[in-house]
């Protein structure tokens, strides 16, 4: 078993409960950590998960769909990736919303979800 991670994927998207979030959008950062069963000691793309295609799937979901809650976005994205990439044994998805509308000083807000075929 091995791990492939795509960290810090940044997108401008329109998720959130507040009307201005839907209208103006904001910056979202996505981390995807994938567990993959590497087949033998091969060196072929067919033996793993194509992280370029994973990026495209993430970008499509994050920028083309709208969710009120980042938790719902994380769940939907995790389900989509598990369905589209059968070589994934498991994954963790984090959706960061560093500019969440909170009255206070903070560095980050994120929601995380996990999936496993086991």
From TrEMBL:
Gene3D superfamilies attached to this UniProt entry: 3.30.1130.10
Family: Belongs to the DHNA family.
GO cellular component terms, semicolon-separated: cytoplasm
Protein's recorded name: 7,8-dihydroneopterin aldolase
Function: Catalyzes the conversion of 7,8-dihydroneopterin to 6-hydroxymethyl-7,8-dihydropterin.
GO molecular function: dihydroneopterin aldolase activity
UniProt KW Lyase keyword: yes
UniProt entry tagged with the keyword ATP-binding: no
Pfam families the UniProt entry points to: FolB
GO biological process, one term: tetrahydrofolate biosynthetic process
Organism for this UniProt entry: Allomeiothermus silvanus (strain ATCC 700542 / DSM 9946 / NBRC 106475 / NCIMB 13440 / VI-R2)
Keywords: Folate biosynthesis, Lyase
EC annotation from Swiss-Prot or TrEMBL: 4.1.2.25
InterPro entries named among the record's database cross-references: Dihydroneopterin_aldolase (IPR006156), FolB_dom (IPR006157), GTP-CH-I_C/QueF (IPR043133)
Pathway: Cofactor biosynthesis; tetrahydrofolate biosynthesis; 2-amino-4-hydroxy-6-hydroxymethyl-7,8-dihydropteridine diphosphate from 7,8-dihydroneopterin triphosphate: step 3/4
Catalytic activity: 7,8-dihydroneopterin = 6-hydroxymethyl-7,8-dihydropterin + glycolaldehyde
Boundaries of every Dihydroneopterin aldolase/epimerase domain copy: 4-115
